[in-house]
Amino acid sequence: MIHPSHTAFHTPSRLIFLSPDLYGDPDYLDRLHAFSRELWRTLKATHANQSDVKLRKESDYLDLLKLVINGMSVSVSDKRFNGLHVHLGQEEYRPKGSLAKLSNDRVTTLIDMLTSYLDPDALEPYFSIYKGSNITGRVTVVHCRHWFRDKLVRAGLVFYGSPFTKISDSTKQLGYLRVSKTPPKTHVWLENDKEEISKDCRRLGRPATQLEECIPKLTALLRKADIKLELPNYWAYEKQSLYRNAKTGSWYSHVLPKSDMFYRIYSDADEQGGRIFGHHYQNLKANLRPYLAIGGEKTVEIDYQSCQPSICYSLLGLERPSDDLYDIGDATIDRDLLKKAFLIGIGSEANGRPATALRVKAKNDRRESRSKKPILTYADAKEADRKFWEFHKPIAEFRCSGAWRRLQYEESQIALKVIAQLVRQKIAVLPLHDGFLVAERHKDALMQAMVDAVSELSCRPVPVLKGN
């Protein structure tokens, strides 16, 4: 979402207006300049073959092209915006200051080039015109062709907040050790209740442990390593950027808050919860994480198989009963449903109703993913819950015990051990709770760190390479 402090772009009718100013971080501007220079060379060559008009002061056209591409990148970064609005003939759209030399005639010429000349590779125009004119002057709303949107994505010019999103400074205010306090419920919460329980997040009032001291080091290491999302096309961007509200059915923008500072947050008290959060790429959908690159290098993701069930067995000093603890040998029940049954079971309190919660969860997930699977009945949910805990009877005491805080703490301790070992080797890693993402050449080092971190457990979770 465009930052309110920048008035260069305003969006009545969800349109982006051409602006005479450029904003953005240096990396974005470098990519914009490189892309615009290459596009201008192509435009010049095409123009020479298709027109008798001679371009004067080509540097002015290049400066203008940067403004047009910048505005178009912003307009396609958010589906709620409906094109780039170029309104000629009015004072507010006349470039000022150092860019006053960019006349309306040049804007008209450039837009005509982009909407009429064919690119030699795609054999299509770059833009398309949406509207005509009115009495105050020529009004043009231009849109990217689909193939040109793909080029903008691959050039790193399309992303939410483009190019204005600010890095969050909440870590400086709250530190990297925090605790969230959940106020007591004041009434019976209904399924469709829109009111939310607000959590009071505060700085944790103790010094960091030796293990936790790796958290700020990880932040510094990953910043230096330059982690980026390199999407192949606009379709992939749309899949990442939009989500559908399971209850209302409405589509919303999946804005990734631009934060890259890790912190550990406990739930209600020390040694409860304690997972590592803070980086915006931790919120990325799983099917798009393969597009992440660290230092320009492809990445791999490795996670622990059945991590929290393994911790349950280990806390009781028991050994692993099977390779995959979410596989109970019943092909009629989906593995994902059994995983949900475990997570809801450990998340329920003594008076909880996990079968009901499992059915609601499966129903909402089905609606959000637009799955064609049959709707889960209450009887099927109850049967899945019963069969899972019957198979795992040795750890059934964790069901309906609110054990999730303890298990998340143990899981986060394992994650910190992995992070600390990699940070000592100067290897940048993106933690994903029970999984980790590193550059491809560090795959073996990550695998070894994950094996070492669980070496003392009686039921050791197995590191598994995602995608294999």
Describe this structure in words.
The protein has 13 helices and 17 strands. By secondary structure, the protein is α+β, with helices and mostly antiparallel strands. It has two domains: 12-154, no CATH class; 172-190 and 197-325 and 392-465, no CATH class. Strands 8, 13, 14, 15, 16 and 17 form a six-stranded antiparallel sheet that branches. Strands 1, 2, 3, 4 and 5 form a five-stranded mixed sheet that branches. A four-stranded mixed sheet has the order 7-6-11-12. Strand 13 and strand 14 form a beta hairpin. Helix 1 (26-50) packs across helix 2 and helix 9 crosses helix 10 (354-369). The longest helix is centred in the first third of the chain and has 25 residues, at 26-50. It starts with 15 loop residues before the first strand and ends with a strand.
Total domain modules: 2
State Rg: 27 Å
The counted number of beta strands is 17
Q: Summarize the helix and strand pattern as letters.
A: EHHEHEEEHHEEHEHEEEEEEHHHHHEEHE
Calculate the mean pLDDT score and round it: 80
Largest sheet: 6 strands, antiparallel
The rough form would be described as: elongated
- Structural class estimated from helices and strands: alpha+beta
Low-confidence stretches: 1-13, 89-93, 185-198
First-last Cα distance: 36 Å
Strand-residue proportion: 15-25%
- How many alpha or pi helices? 13
